[in-house]
Amino acid sequence: MLARRLALAAASLSLLGGLALLGAPAALAQMPAPNVIKDPKAAPAGVYKLDPRHASATVKLAHMGLSHYTLRLDTIAGSYTYDPAHPTATQVSVTLDPKSVDTGDTKFNEEISDKFLDAGKFPTITFTSTKIIAGAGDRGEVEGILDFHGVQKPVTLHVTYRGFVEMMKQQRMGFSGEATFKRSDFGATSYIPLVGDEITLLVEVEFAKQ
């Protein structure tokens, strides 16, 4: 008898949990659209940390001249201290893990990580800004030092500011960025010219105020 009661109780809890999960999307659907503010001065001062659940870093490069192959680096971290009175004085630091390569194929992930990026020898890829240049509208440039494959060289990230949102007790800023550079400049020459020398790095990131 006791076992039957426990089974019924467990089934009831499971049903309630399922209903709660079904209700969650409906509750989110009823929320108002976020009020995205495009003025950078609207974001409050403070420390902003990259939200890895809402960030991506993808790499594109030519393969045999037939396609622009795309892969993703899954592990990304970063932060900056922001002052709306001096937005171009912001210093950004972003770190990528070359071991987190994701091509959709486990064995190929290891090959790219080990032979293409030499992740065992160079376990991090970092970009540290040195200058921010405001452009027209929501565009700008972030100049900085890319530390890749054990070599440090200047790289410019072309950025689009997506805006600031305060919602669900969170304050966050969003950006899209693109940078192009030659990997041979950093000593990463594996498979050239079979695989292209020029790399395009695409980032989509959100930073949440701490």
Features:
2 helices, 210 residues, 19% helix, disordered N terminus, Lipocalin, eight-stranded antiparallel barrel
How would you characterize the overall build of this protein?
Strands 1-4-5-7-8-9-10-11 form an 8-stranded antiparallel β-barrel. It has 210 residues and is α+β, with helices and mostly antiparallel strands. It is globular, with a radius of gyration of 22 Å. The longest helix is centred in the first third of the chain and has 28 residues.
Outline the secondary-structure elements:
Elements: H1 2-29, E1 46-50, E2 56-63, E3 67-73, E4 76-82, E5 92-96, E6 101-102, H2 106-116, E7 125-134, E8 139-148, E9 151-167, E10 170-182, E11 198-209
Antiparallel strand pairs: 1-4, 1-11, 2-3, 2-11, 3-6, 4-5, 5-7, 7-8, 8-9, 9-10, 10-11
Please bin the fraction of helical residues.
Answer: 10-25%
CATH topology description of the largest domain: Lipocalin
CATH class designation of the largest domain: Mainly Beta
H/E element sequence: HEEEEEEHEEEEE
The domain count comes to 2
Strand content is: over 45%
Q: Total number of β-strand segments?
A: 11
Spatial order of the strands in the main sheet? 1-4-5-7-8-9-10-11
How many helical elements?
2
Structural class label: alpha+beta
CATH superfamily of the largest domain: Lipid/polyisoprenoid-binding, YceI-like
Note poorly predicted spans.
1-21
